[in-house]
Design goal:
Layout (H helix, E strand, L loop, with lengths): L12 E6 L6 H14 L3 E4 L8 E6 L5 E5 L2 E5 L2 H13 L3 E6 H8 L2 H27 L5 E4 L7 H4 L10 E3 L4 E3 L5 E5 L15 H12 L8 E5 L10 E3 L1 E2 L6 E2 L1 E2 L2 E2 L1 E3 L3 H10 L3 E3 L8 E5 L2 E5 L10 E8 L2 E9 L1
Parallel strand pairs: 1-2, 2-7, 3-6, 7-8, 10-11, 11-18, 18-20
Antiparallel strand pairs: 1-21, 3-4, 4-5, 9-10, 12-17, 13-14, 15-16, 19-20, 21-22
Helix pairs in contact: 1-4, 6-7
Length: about 325
């Protein structure tokens, strides 16, 4: 007598997804270690890899240095103290650069020089992070996929396209295979924000960008949307409403309480509802860790606490065009 058994399915592909590390050395290293720690086959970085601030360490007389960290001037007397300050600045997600007093005075009044310095420092760190990914993941079979986000600039992100890379895969605005049956498409642009960041687009333009890279895929049922912006009003995008007329933007409050709203993208939501990909990976709104379904599509935002050196992520198993399981992580 024949027994009826469930059809065999593949064990699946395990994905570890994190986003919004904003230059933090500590969280990037944790991210690369997460593959082995969680038994993942694939690491996905969802954007905003660049830091937001460069801190000069100014060389003074008699081998002394000074640096302003978190608004406090710190005096550094030894080479060891300078190196410790550089490391701490990197862990915070900032860039450190050592310069003489004359160079500092000339640079701080020259916006073009500041922009050039920032791009150079961000590119150097990204290249070093890629080298670290190659060395840590060599021989493991784990691949690291990375895209930028709205806070990243094209000139720096172009450094990700390295023909010699093996474990590191640049996937910005591309369709890339994750395994034998699933593909991922990545979009760094977001809808407009009060911060006027480098890669924002009005909703119609964002919709056109999404259509260009995702509209012609043959089987959206086995596609992952790695879109930095979360879908609007999805619980993945809840944050305080800001007043963009102030510098910097300030929180809007009513009766002493912050006004919360959905800051996500209507174009991203419309694309998900139209194409129903198997999975949406999102970030951008750090404080809105959540998972929600839009039709058949599971959308996740693991949130970000890069400033505290905490790596938030989501571990997912996919197989046969379905998300078999997911779990939010922090460490």
């Amino acid at each position: 007598m024949r027994l009826f058994r469930r059809p065999r399915t593949s064990k699946g592909t395990r994905i570890f997804f994190a986003t919004d590390v904003h230059g933090s050395e500590r969280t990037w290293r944790k991210f690369l270690n997460a593959g082995a720690f969680y038994g993942a086959d694939v690491l996905v970085m969802g954007g905003d890899v660049m830091g937001k601030l460069a801190i000069p360490i100014i060389r003074e007389a008699r081998g002394m240095h000074r640096a302003t960290i978190h608004g406090r001037i710190e005096r550094l007397e030894t080479a060891a103290e300078v190196e410790a300050a550089r490391e701490r600045i990197g862990f915070l997600g900032f860039y450190a650069t050592i310069m003489d007093e004359d160079e500092y005075q000339a640079t701080k009044t020259d916006p073009t020089a500041i922009d050039r310095l920032f791009v150079d420092l961000a590119t150097e760190r990204l290249l070093r992070w890629m080298d670290l990914a190659e060395s840590k993941l060599a021989g493991t079979g784990i691949r690291c996929y990375a895209t930028g986000g709205n806070d990243d600039v094209d000139e720096v992100m172009a450094a990700m396209d390295r023909p010699d890379a093996r474990a590191f895969v640049a996937c910005e605005r591309k369709v890339v295979p994750l395994d034998d049956e699933h593909v991922m498409v990545s979009m760094p642009y977001v809808n407009p924000t009060p911060w006027n960041t480098p890669r924002e687009a009005p909703e119609p333009e964002l919709a056109a960008r999404i259509e260009t890279i995702a509209g012609d895929l043959p089987d959206h049922g086995k596609v992952i949307f790695n879109f930095h912006a979360p879908p609007i009003d999805s619980t993945l995008d809840t944050c305080p409403r800001l007043d963009g007329t102030t510098d910097p933007p300030s929180q809007i409050a009513v009766a002493g309480q912050p006004v919360l709203y959905g800051a996500g993208s209507s174009s991203v939501r419309a694309a998900i509802e139209r194409y129903q990909p198997m999975l949406g990976l999102h970030g951008h709104i750090h404080e809105s860790q959540a998972a929600a379904r839009l039709g058949r599509t599971l959308c996740v935002n693991p949130g970000s606490e890069y400033g505290e050196g905490v790596l938030r992520g989501c571990l997912l198993t996919i197989a046969d065009g379905e998300v078999k399981s997911y779990q939010m992580t922090a460490g």
